[in-house]
Every structure is written in C-alpha cells, then in structure tokens.
C-alpha cells in the first residue's frame, strides 16, 4: 500500500459529528468507517489510542491519534 499523509479542514458541525461517531465506536469496541480525501477505510476497534500535544513557536496543536496495522 502506498504511503499517504493527508490533512483536511472541515466545518465545525461535521467535525463534531465525526468525533461523536468515533467516540461511540470506541466506547463499543467497534470499528469506525470514514472517508478522507476520497479514500474510505475502516479503523478497527483494536486500534491504539493516543493524545499528542505539539508546540512550535506561537502555534500549538492537539492530535487525537488512532494507530493500527491494516489487515488483508
């Protein structure tokens, strides 16, 4: 599978809706299906979860990360 690094902006209501669906899936130990930049994929319930904070100059960033290895 080819490497990919995509970041996209989205409206607040869409962001909130996505977070709610994600939180429900995590709470139920279920998978989460999402489309980002024309690619659909499933995040498995077994994904590793982490929270990251970055600061560079006068900019700060908060990332909620889910990490997993795809299965064939």
Order of helices and strands: HEEEE
Count of separate structural domains: 1
Average residue-wise pLDDT: 94
In percent terms, what proportion of residues is strand? Answer: 35-45%
- Helix residue percentage: 10-25%
Number of strands: 4
Rg from alpha-carbon coordinates:
14 Å
Count up the helices. Answer: 1
Shape: globular
Low-confidence runs: none
Major sheet strand order = 1-2
Secondary-structure content class: alpha+beta
**How is the biggest beta sheet arranged?**
2 strands, antiparallel
Terminal Cα span: 11 Å
Supply the key terms.
72 residues, alpha+beta, two-stranded antiparallel ribbon, 4 strands, 39% strand, globular
Quick recap of the structure?
The chain is an alpha+beta fold and 72 residues long. Helices cover 22% and strands 39% of the residues. It is built from one helix and four strands.
């Amino acid at each position: 599978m080819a490497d990919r690094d995509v970041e996209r902006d989205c409206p607040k209501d869409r962001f909130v809706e996505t977070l709610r669906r994600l939180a429900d899936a995590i709470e139920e130990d279920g998978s989460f299906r999402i489309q980002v930049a024309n690619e659909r994929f499933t995040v498995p319930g077994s994904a590793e979860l982490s929270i990251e904070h970055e600061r560079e100059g006068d900019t700060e960033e908060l990332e909620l990360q889910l990490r997993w290895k795809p299965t064939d």
